[in-house]
Amino acid sequence: MADIGVFQPLFPEERVLGPLLEQAAELASHCHRLSAYAGQPLALALAPRLRAMNSYYTNKIEGQHTRPADIERALANQYDADAKQARKQRLAVAHMDAEAELEARVAGLSRQTLYDPAFIGDIHAALYCRLPEADRVTDEGDEIIVPGAWRTRQVAAGRHVAPPAEEVEGLLAAWSARYRLLPGLEQAVVGVACAHHRLLWIHPFRDGNGRAARLHSHLVFYNLGLTQGLWSPMRGLARRQEDYYAHLNNADFARRHDYDGRGPLSQEDLVAFASFFLETCLDQAQFMAGKLDLGSLRDRIADLLTWLGAHPWQMGSEKSVVKADALEAVHYVAMAGPVERARFMAMTGLPDRTARRVLASLLDWGLLTSPSTRAPVSFAVPLASLRFLFPRLWPEAEADTG
Fold first, then answer.
1. At 366, is the secondary structure helix, strand, or coil?
2. Which of 4, 6, 29, 218 is at 20 to 30 A from 163, Cα to Cα?
3. Which string of DSSP letters, residue by residue, matches 390-402?
4. For residue range 227-241, what is the model confidence (pLDDT) as tens digits?
5. Could you tell me the CA-to-CA distances from 128 to 77, 82, 138, 203, 246 in Å, in that order?
6. CATH 1.10.3290.10 in the chain, residues?
7. Chosen CATH of 7-291 out of 3.40.50.2020, 2.170.190.11, 1.10.3290.10, 3.40.50.2000
């Protein structure tokens, strides 16, 4: 039977909890403001890029990322001839699909279910079941990764020697019991941070623990109504990867003195990790609020249209045509949603033939999208548009398409 005291404390004592609750309240406040953008056409158009970005960054933390442009190609079923690169592409797409599936699933789940050990297994399975068996191997190549299965052998992660495999289920049950019933939003938010470290401390899977833990944090925040699909801890943790690893490692340390909590692990370092985690999340929520500033969107679209007009590309036997006159129409679609093609062309004020070519060009480049040749057009955010529409959101993608 597992000794569930070995990874205490799972949550900070009341006397040290105050600053974390203040951070959690500030994060919730900023997320509430960000929720005004949820479900808007611009947010819906950006969602596929954000999902690709999350995949890129969580895999980058593991050293298994591929270039943003390679992810785009994989989404079009174009895989690299190099087997290692193709494996990374498949992993990226698998993470995107798993994230989408799990977000839809957790929307109506109780918090108790989110911390059920079975759900942690489901997260891991949702990712790895999408990979062919040849891709489901450890980095050492010595073992097949079974989707959703607890590990059956002793492992180490950095300096941390994980608990024996036979104790995993008991420790997960204790982990679940501590976090599933935390009262109030602020304590629940602090719980996400603490649970993230303690889940990694248990290290329940042979491989994929980091990805599963980050997806779990992402999904709990989503369930709490804090992300609206507009931000994720993954980007922030990847951009502060050294600090992330340092705080994770420090939270493994043993209790130092009489004021360092009551369990065998350091409460001070758990608090430091949770504070870092919440600070990183707040930074991401604030960053995305700035990126979604609708007041400057029109100018950003204008800059993009000017650039497209100055850099025509080949479309069959003709060159593309993009004119600044299309600004009002494109801006309207971005703000209001799908528009009939005839109405879009009329909004440009251009002669019919020119308006038709502009529309065809914007569809070809990907700034507009449509399910068929006659269906209404919607706003889209192709990878190459990020440096104009959402600068510095995904710098690696800007470098890929610059």
1. coil
2. 218
3. STTSSHHHHHHH-
4. 999 999 999 999 999
5. 18, 21, 12, 16, 27
6. 7-291
7. 1.10.3290.10
> Residue 202 is which amino acid?
I
Q: What are phi and psi of 159, to 5 degrees?
A: -85, -10
Give backbone dihedrals phi and psi of 316, rounded to 5 degrees, phi first.
Answer: 65, -120
The pair of structure tokens assigned to 68 is 């943003």
Q: CATH 1.10.10.10 region(s) of the chain?
A: 294-401
| pLDDT tens track for 125-145 | 999 999 999 999 887 767 889
* Domain covering 294-401 in this structure, CATH number: 1.10.10.10
Burial pattern 106-119, b for ≥16 Cβ within 10 A else e, equals beeeeeeebbbbeb
For residue 83, the tally of other CB atoms under 10 A from its CB is 11
Q: Cα 263 to the chain's mean position, in Å?
A: 33
